[in-house]
Specification:
By secondary structure, this protein is of the alpha+beta class. It is about 25% helix and about 20% strand. The protein contains six helices and twelve strands.
């Protein structure tokens, strides 16, 4: 069914991906290279994210025991209102952009990434993301809050201490804006949310589902671009992290730990990715069309050293992938929920 080149449509963005399965029918044949395990210390006295250490500017971190959030010392957005440069031509338009950026350290441990934390610690991270989202959204000039994690140096992570970021902006960024438009149109036409209908269809087919619990499903989306791209989708039409019940937070923590553990187990390496939650905008409007979800975009393709990049045709024409989402889902499903570092214990 999926042996020949075809385009797959992404209803969340209105864009398409070219799938070329004939180019890599058996992408895991041959040697699978593993990178050497990086043995990080529990605490690094030179790390500006570890407890009790001094950050740039002279601020000293508290002796924190759980997830810890602070204003980013190198913020990409600033809260002060500054007039944008005046435009002298309609094709050279710009507007000012206000915002706030925060960092969330997962734990005081310098050496524990998300899949290596216990469930209580992952729940604490989610609770901290929620607290930061609520706090930032209360600023009268904030209309969107983006929670995201860049894991690994290949994804631009500048510090190995496991951490994530929360950026709050005056305007809705490009990707959530596209999803907002598509979800609103679908809801207006059908009276149901796009992602709830999509999730129901995926569960009927069961080709790309990784696993599910009572409140969330993890799957490889039909329109996936990255080799082992996944989504986590809420079963209920909650639009914000703050709308999750304690039981749903626990379920989300379980799903996130299982996804990231299987990522690490795939090539027995601390698996790099960019991950982020898409919540509804904070624009003072109701958003019955929105379903809370998270995207995981990992670059590794065939081993710990073989990566996919967006180059050539993908930059100039459209995204393309060789491994079908169905093959990727089957590969991830086959892996253990026990982290490879603990398999022999």
């Amino acid at each position: 069914m999926y042996d020949s080149p075809h385009r797959r449509f992404n209803p969340l963005t209105g864009e398409s991906v070219l799938v070329s399965p004939h180019r890599a029918k058996r992408p895991w044949q041959g040697q699978v290279e593993k990178s050497s395990t990086e043995n990080l210390p529990h605490y690094d006295p030179t790390c500006y994210l570890c407890p009790r250490n001094e950050r740039v500017g002279g601020v000293t971190n508290p002796d924190y025991k759980a997830a810890f959030a602070f204003d980013n010392d190198f913020a990409a957005l600033l809260p002060d209102e500054v007039q944008a440069p005046a435009s002298t031509h309609p094709l050279l338009a710009s507007v000012s952009e206000r915002g706030l950026c925060r960092v969330v350290c997962f734990s005081p441990r310098h050496d524990l990434t998300l899949p290596e934390l216990d469930l209580a610690a992952v729940e604490n991270v989610i609770a901290t993301w929620t607290e930061q989202t609520v706090d930032l959204s209360r600023k009268n000039f904030i209309h969107y809050v983006q929670v995201f994690e860049n894991k690994g140096a290949v994804m631009g992570c500048s510090n190995p201490h496991p951490h994530s970021q929360v950026w709050a902006s005056e305007h809705i960024p490009n990707e959530p804006a596209k999803e907002l438009e598509r979800q609103k149109a679908y809801f207006a036409q059908n009276g149901r949310t796009l992602l709830s209908d999509y999730l129901a269809e995926e569960h009927k087919r069961n080709e790309r589902i990784l696993f599910a619990n009572e409140h969330f499903t993890a799957l490889v989306p039909y329109w996936a671009v990255w080799p082992f791209e996944t989504m986590i989708v809420a079963h209920r039409n909650a639009a914000y992290l703050s709308e999750l019940t304690p039981a749903e937070v626990s379920a989300l923590a379980e799903i996130m730990k299982r996804v990231t553990t299987r990522y690490d187990n795939l090539f027995e390496v601390s698996f790099p990715y960019s991950m982020g939650f898409h919540q509804a905008p904070f624009d003072g409007q109701p958003h019955p069309e929105w379903t809370l979800h998270a995207h995981f975009y990992p670059p590794l393709l065939r081993s710990a050293t073989v990566r996919k990049f967006m180059v050539g045709y993908e930059m100039l024409a459209m995204p393309q992938r060789d491994i079908t989402p169905e093959t990727a889902a089957e590969r991830l499903r086959s892996l253990s929920d026990t982290h490879y570092k603990h398999e022999s214990n």
